[in-house]
Every structure is written in C-alpha cells, then in structure tokens.
Amino acid sequence: MSIIRAEALIKEFVRPKRHTGRFAAVRNLVTRESVTNRAVDGISLEIEEGEIVGYLGPNGAGKSTTIKMLSGILVPTSGSVEVCGLVPWQQRTTNAFNIGVVFGQRSQLWWDLPLDESLNLIGRMYRMAPEHYRRNREMLVELLEMQTFLGTPVRQLSLGQRMRGDLAAAVLYEPPVLFLDEPTVGLDVVAKERIRAFIEQINAERRTTVLLTTHDLGDVERLCRRLIIIDHGKVLFDGPTEELKRRYAPHRLLDIVVGSDAIAQLDSFFTDLPPHLIPVSHDGMKATLAVDPVTTPLPAAIAEVSAAVPVMDLGVREPALEGIIREIYERREVAP
Amino acid sequence: MQSLFLCWHMATASIRGQMQYRASFVIGVLSGMFFQGLGIIMIWAILDTFSVIGEWSFGEIAMLYGMRLTAHGVYLIFFSSMYSIDDLVREGGFDRLLVRPIHPILQLMFTDFRITVLGDLAGGLAILIAAVNLVDVHWTATNTALIVLTVIGGAMIDGAFQMLPASLTFRYIESMPARVIFDDVFSRFGNYPVDIFGSIATRLLTFLIPLAFVAWLPVSLLLDKPTFLPPWAGWLSLPVGVVAMAVALWVFVRSSRAYQSSGS
User: Fold this and answer.
1) ipTM tops 0.90
2) Do A184 and A308 fall within a single domain?
3) Which of residues 55-114 of B touch A (CB under 8 A)?
4) pLDDT above 70: residue A335
5) A300 and A170 belong to one structural domain
6) Which of A170, A180, B72, B217 could form a disulfide with A212 if both were Cys (CB 3.0 to 4.6 A apart)?
C-alpha cells in the first residue's frame, strides 16, 4: 500500500486572456476570453513508505503544483490523489497531521514571532502532549543547532537559519510524510550539508517518507535513490537514480593525458580509433574516450590505449548526474 | 474546548508579535479613538443645528452610534485579516493556512488578532455607555442582555458582510472594491435611524443587507420607538448574525477551492 498515490492528476489554471496593442486595457476589461494553462498534465505516481524521492524538472515543469495538490493547498482539476489514505483537499485538516511541508521560497512560520514561539504554537496546533513536545523540540534544537537564534523573530533570521526553523517546524509533530520544495535553495555549502544530513537522519530514524524538489543535484546524489523527472506536467522518468545513469549514460569515460612529445601519437591514434572506443573530446595532450563496460571490459580498453600511446595519466569516470539531467531538460524527453 | 484553548494561544501569540512594534500599537489605538471621536462630533454638530434627526435626539442617536461602533470594534478584533486577504491570496501566503490542522477561518481570526483596534472598541463602548445614561434607558438585566447580544450579533453581521465579498479574492484576486462597498454602506447608513432614508431603503437595509439589526431595531426597542416591524424584531440581531455568518462561511470555504496559490 503506497503512502502517496496520484493517478492521472491534472491541474489547469484559467486566466483571463491579456490583450496587447490598441485599447488593450479596455479590451482586457470587457472580453471574457480566457487562457487555460495545464500545469500538471496526467501525472501518476506511487511512493512507498520510507522512500526519499527526488522530484525534478526544469522551472515551470509543474513540480510545485503537484506538491501543492499533494499537500491539500490546491484542488486538482481532475484525477485522484491520496496521502496516507486521505484525499488531501477534502480532508485537509486531518491530512495536515500526516504531512510536514517546507517551501524554500516562503516560510511557513509566523513572521513577527520568535522562532521558539512559532514552534510552541505548532506543538499546540498539532495537539502534542507537553512532554512529547519538549522532547522533540530539544532534539531538533540540538540537531539543527538552533540554540543561538531561538529567540529571534523569524523575519530577522538569515536564510539558512530560517530554513532550519522551517524544517524543525515541519517535522516537530513527527508527520509520516514530508514535502520539501527546494529546501536548499540559496544556501551556502555548509548550510546545504546540514540540511541534507538532517533529512537523511529523519528518514533513517523515523522512516519518514520524503518527496523533495530541488535544482541542486548534490541533494539528489546525496539523498535520493529514486527520481521522478517531469516536464510540461508529464512524467519523463520514474525509477532508481542508478537506472537513469545506466539507461542514459551507460558508458564509462576514460580521461587520457600524454606528454607534450606524444601529441602527434595521440592525434594519429584518434584518427583511426577502433569502433568500441568512442571519441568524446580531444585537445592537445588531453583526450576523453567513452567505453561501454558491458561489451568492452575496462581493463582491456585501458590496455589497448596504453599500448597505442605513452599514457602519462589515466582516469575512469562515471558520467555525472548533472550532465544527464541537463541533457534531459534540453531535449525535454528521456531516452528509451 | 481544546480548540478554544488553542484559539486563545494563537491570539496571545499574535498580540505578543504586534507588541514588538510598540509605537505602531499606540498610534493604532489613538487613531482609532480619534477617528471615532470625530464621527460623534459630526453628529453632535448636525444636531446642534437641527436638534433632531427623524425624531431622534442627540442622546438617542449617540446610543445608536455607540451600539454600531462597539459591534464594529468587536468585528475588527476578529476580522482585521479581511483587510489584508487580497495580499495573502495574491502572494500565496494563504498556503500556510491550508497546511495546518485548524480551519483557515479560525487561523485568520486568531493569528491575525488585532489589538490596535482596541481604540475603536473603547471609543464605541464609551459612547454607548455615556448615551445610555443620557437617555431614559436603565441597565436592567433585560436591557443589558439585549445590548450584549446585539453587539455580538452586530459584529457577526459586519463580519459576514466582509467575508462574503472577500470570497471573491480566490477567483478575482482583487476583492477590495467589493468589501469597501459594504464597509461604506455600514458606516454611512449605520449611524442613523435607518427609516430616515425612506421606506424602500429601510426594507433593503433590513432584508437584503441586514444593517437594521446591527443597531436601529434593537435601539428602537430599548427606546420604545415604533418601526415598521414589531418590537420583538429588536431581539433578532444574534440569530440574524448567526445565519449571515453561516452563509458567509459556506461561501468563503466553497470559494477557497478556486485558490490558485502563486508560482513556485
């Protein structure tokens, strides 16, 4: 039984059509034409308890809209959605107990209240027993290192502090599901790492299910064993991160460096490569070859290259996720 | 019971938040009292020249004025958030209310619990109490009950007729003009005996927009003045308020399904 389930989910936004040119303002006022924009176009997904799933897509792909439907903020135009067996927009207040939400772009805390007071109010809203509240608050303050700014009004916190506060507020009442919409956006390296470690720990200790949108593939590499990639409101890929790499970039990359005296030798080797060694780049003393490890064992390939040219340095790389994602976003489709 | 306790906590937290801006708090209270004081001086100025408005003396009008103002003050404490609902919806801040396990209306009422409007409330109460002593009305148990119930009912009628137009914000983002219309009707017509505006307006302001129940009908009952309705209609403020509020709540919740949030 999946903890998050969406089927053929569609969300359309209807906006009045904007005219341009002559008398545009008047025409905007009197005409009733509208433009329908389908932000989510038939998304189906199932997420099991305890998973951390990366929900990726270029800007405007429909990530936030999906998350808002899963958290009960938006009512779907059609399709069905269920979180912990509840329909979020219909059973909104009950659903609220099951989910924690962090929107990186906007705080869910009370702007004028000190962080501690926000946490207290959330503890009461979620009807936590005082003992339970105290224990969780203490644990979170320590884990997220919030001691120094607990008394500061939220509006005066730095972005990193605010994000930690938001995360603490989202997991305080131990919801089984966590929706994180760009939780590391705009943070420095250290702050990012702290947030990632925290998400990892909460997932490991409480088996919290996490759905995470991000543009930082560091988040994905670190946390997500499964990815769902969407664009134009449709799912492009849904599967293990490893499978995406395998399917998309099965090759290993061989970086070769030769001495300056062997440039000519490298050149001639590259003009007449055997078919199982695929040229990627070649520039003076440096070159990169791609090899499919299934058909060509890596040691054999390395031996072949070493025999042909006097190699000074040699490295084997797995293609980075970043390149794969970039290619998908650019082509707007996933290779079969 | 538990949710009452929670509302109390939301309200006190909200007050502590506002207390951070102490100057703004003082200015808010003083300007409220100043504004309402000006209103009553206006009426006094008119009555000083004409001595009666539709057979109502200054003390009697002041009672009407105090009654409506007190109800309005109570309304302001709970429903000040209606004034900023357009921004909340346009900028997507309404999201926050939808992911919490409390009804969004309760959150609007109590997490935006305004005390800067205490000036309006204090002004209204002062005028009401002074007026009761000016005219021939005594603080009997029945009269006190009528006044208290009317203030509560009046606040609910006021709130309902702000919440109804505010519902438009979910579809049209801008609901301010619609709210201003009702606000205007209440503050322009509410401070006078409604029947001075003619019989059609009286019926419209009784059955369409039940402004007559906020002050005119109950005060007429207290002062033993005849209206086009039987005297017991003066007791109907609370029931009318409850019904208006129930309808407004239903409309508001239905309309909120059209909420579109904001990008990202």
Assistant:
1) no
2) no
3) 92-93, 95-96, 98-103, 111
4) no
5) no
6) A180
In A, minimum Cα distance to B95 occurs at: A73
Contact B120, B36 (CB under 8 A): yes
Q: Say yes or no: B20 contacts chain A, CB-CB below 8 A.
A: yes
pLDDT at B235 over 70: yes
User: Which residues of chain B does A103 touch, with a Cβ-Cβ cutoff of 8 Å?
Assistant: 95, 264
Q: Does residue A335 sit within a domain?
A: no
Q: Is a pLDDT exceeding 90 seen at residue A271?
A: no
A257 and A217 in a single domain? The answer is no
Same structural domain for residues A174 and A211? yes
Would you say B20 and B163 are in contact if contact means Cβ atoms under 8 Å apart?
no
Tokens found for residue A114: 């000190």
Of the candidates B9, B17, B99, the beta carbon closest to that of A73 is on: B99
Claim to verify: residue A255 and residue A308 sit in the same structural domain: yes
Residue A328 lies in a domain: no
Give the domain CATH number at A81: 3.40.50.300
Contacts of B113 in chain A (CB under 8 A): none
Q: How far apart are the C-alpha atoms of A121 and A51, rounded to whole Å? A: 29
Distances (CA, A) of B131 to B49, B66, B67: 19, 8, 10
Q: CATH number, domain at A314?
A: 3.30.70
Per-residue pLDDT of B1-55, as tens digits, reads 677 888 888 888 888 887 777 888 888 788 878 877 787 787 778 777 777 788 8
Quick check: A126 and B6 CB within 8 A? no
Smallest Cα distance from B107 to chain A, Å: 10
pLDDT digits (tens, 9 = 90+) for B184-204: 888 888 888 999 999 999 999
Q: Do A181 and B9 touch (CB under 8 A)?
A: no
Range of the domain at A305: 250-318
Helix ranges restricted to H, chain B: 2-19, 22-50, 58-79, 85-90, 94-98, 104-111, 118-134, 141-166, 169-172, 176-189, 199-203, 216-223, 237-255
CB contact under 8 A, A106 and B95: yes
Residues A52 and A194 in one domain: yes
Give pLDDT tens digits for B112-162: 777 778 888 888 898 899 999 889 888 999 999 999 999 999 999 999 999
pLDDT at B206: 94
What is the reported pLDDT for B264? 57
